[in-house]
Design a protein that fits this description.
Helix 4 links the parallel strand 4 and strand 5 (99-102). The chain has 16 helices and eight strands. 52% of the residues lie in helices and 12% in strands. It is α/β, with parallel strands linked by helices. The chain has helices at 11-22, 34-43, 64-68, 83-90, 115-126, 143-146, 161-171, 184-206, 211-231, 236-239, 242-253, 258-267, 272-279, 284-298, 304-313, 319-327; strands at 3-7, 26-30, 59-61, 73-76, 99-102, 133-138, 152-157, 176-181. Strands 3-2-1-4-5-6-7-8 form an eight-stranded mixed β-sheet, with helices on both faces.
C-alpha cells in the first residue's frame, strides 16, 4: 500500500483519487477551496461526476504540508494555470525521494515549459541539489469514465524508467491499463496541443459540419502536432500512441470534453467568454494556444489549424471565415 497525496480536487483529481483508494492505497486530497473540501467530506460526491460514490476512506485537507509530507507519491491534478503556484507553495514539503506525478496538460505561455518542467523548476528552486523523480501521466482518459470504472488505457512517461514503472504499478488495475514511455516531452506536447485540435473540432460541429470535417481536423491536427514534436526532438511513435492520436480522438469526439463543448458553442456563434463560462471549468485548449503559436514560430513549423484557432479565439476571424481560409490554402501533398 502506498501513501498518496493528490493536489487538486477537480474531476480528474477526484476520479484518480477514487481509483487509487480502491487500489488499496491511502489517499489524501488537497484543495485551496475550503467549500470544495467541505462538500466532498459531507457528501462523498463530486458535483461534476454524477452518480459516482467517492470512498469514505479518502481524507481531505487544505494543508499542503499534510498532503505532501510522508507521502510515497504526490499527484499534481490542478489546472495548468495553477501548477506553478501550487508547486512553489508545496516545494518545501516535497523531497527527492518521493515520486511526483503530473496529470495536468498544458504549456506555460511565458516560458514554453511543460507542466513537469514547471514542477521540476519550482522544486529545484527550493532544493537546488535535489534530483526529483517526475512522471507525466497522460492519455485518452475522461474523468467521467474512469470514475465509473470503465476500461481505460494511459501512459506513464518519465526520464526515470524506475519512476515510470513505479507509477505503472501503483495505478494499474483491471479497469486501468498503464503503459510506460520514455519520451516525456512528446507525451506532454500531445496532452497540451490536442486540446486545441479538440476545440477546433467542436467549432466544426457547432457550424453544422459532419464527420468528414471532424476526421479531417483530427488527422491534419495530429500532423501539425507531430511536425512540431519531431522538430523539438520527440519520438514519432509517441504521436501514434495513446498519448498522441488516442488522446486526440477521445478529446475531439466526446461531449465529455470541455474543449469540444466550448468549441461547439463558439461554432454556434456564442462569444468565446460566454462559451467558457457555460463549460464551467478550465478550457485548456484556449490556455494552450499562445504557447503553441510561439513554439510554431520558434521551430519554424507550419500549424494552420492552431493559427486559425488563435484567430477565432482572438476575434480576428469568424469560425466560418477560419474554415474558408483552411479549405482554400495553397495546394500541397499530404
Amino acid at each position: 500500500m502506498a501513501n498518496i497525496g493528490v493536489l487538486g480536487a477537480g474531476t480528474w483529481g477526484i476520479a484518480l483519487a477514487r481509483m487509487l483508494c480502491l487500489n488499496n492505497h491511502k489517499v489524501t486530497v488537497w484543495s485551496a477551496v475550503q467549500k470544495e473540501l467541505d462538500e466532498l467530506t459531507k457528501t462523498h460526491k463530486h458535483p461534476n461526476l454524477s452518480g459516482v460514490e467517492i470512498p469514505k476512506e479518502i481524507e481531505y485537507t487544505n494543508s499542503l504540508s499534510q498532503a505532501c509530507k510522508g507521502k510515497d507519491l504526490i499527484m499534481f491534478s490542478v489546472a495548468s494555470p495553477y501548477v506553478r503556484a501550487t508547486a512553489a507553495n508545496a516545494a518545501e514539503f516535497i523531497t527527492p525521494e518521493q515520486v511526483i506525478v503530473d496529470v495536468a496538460k498544458g504549456i506555460e505561455a511565458d516560458t514554453l515549459m511543460t507542466m513537469s518542467a514547471i514542477i521540476e523548476d519550482e522544486l529545484t528552486k527550493a532544493q537546488p541539489k535535489g534530483k526529483f523523480k517526475i512522471v507525466a501521466l497522460s492519455g485518452p482518459t475522461h474523468a467521467e469514465e474512469v470514475a465509473r470504472d470503465l476500461p481505460t488505457a494511459i501512459v506513464s512517461s518519465s526520464k526515470d524508467e524506475n519512476a515510470a514503472k513505479y507509477v505503472q504499478e501503483i495505478f494499474m488495475n483491471t479497469c486501468m491499463r498503464v503503459y510506460t514511455n520514455s519520451d516525456m516531452l512528446g507525451v506532454e506536447l500531445c496532452g497540451a496541443l490536442k486540446n486545441i485540435m479538440a476545440l477546433a473540432a467542436g467549432v466544426s460541429s457547432g457550424l453544422g459540419f459532419g464527420d468528414n470535417a471532424k476526421a479531417a481536423l483530427i488527422t491534419r491536427g495530429m500532423a501539425e502536432i507531430t511536425r512540431l514534436g519531431l522538430a523539438m526532438g520527440c519520438h514519432e511513435q509517441t504521436f501514434l500512441g495513446l498519448a498522441g492520436i488516442g488522446d486526440l480522438i477521445v478529446t475531439a469526439t466526446s461531449m465529455h470534453s470541455r474543449n469540444n463543448r466550448c468549441g461547439y458553442r463558439i461554432g454556434q456563434g456564442i462569444p468565446v467568454s460566454q462559451a467558457v463560462h457555460e463549460v464551467g471549468m478550465v478550457v485548456e485548449g484556449i490556455n494552450a494556444i499562445p504557447a503553441a503559436i510561439e513554439l510554431a514560430e520558434k521551430y519554424k513549423v507550419e500549424m494552420p489549424i492552431v493559427e486559425m484557432a488563435d484567430a477565432v479565439v482572438g476575434g480576428k476571424v469568424t469560425p466560418k471565415e477560419a474554415v474558408h481560409q483552411l479549405m482554400t490554402r495553397k495546394k500541397k501533398a499530404e
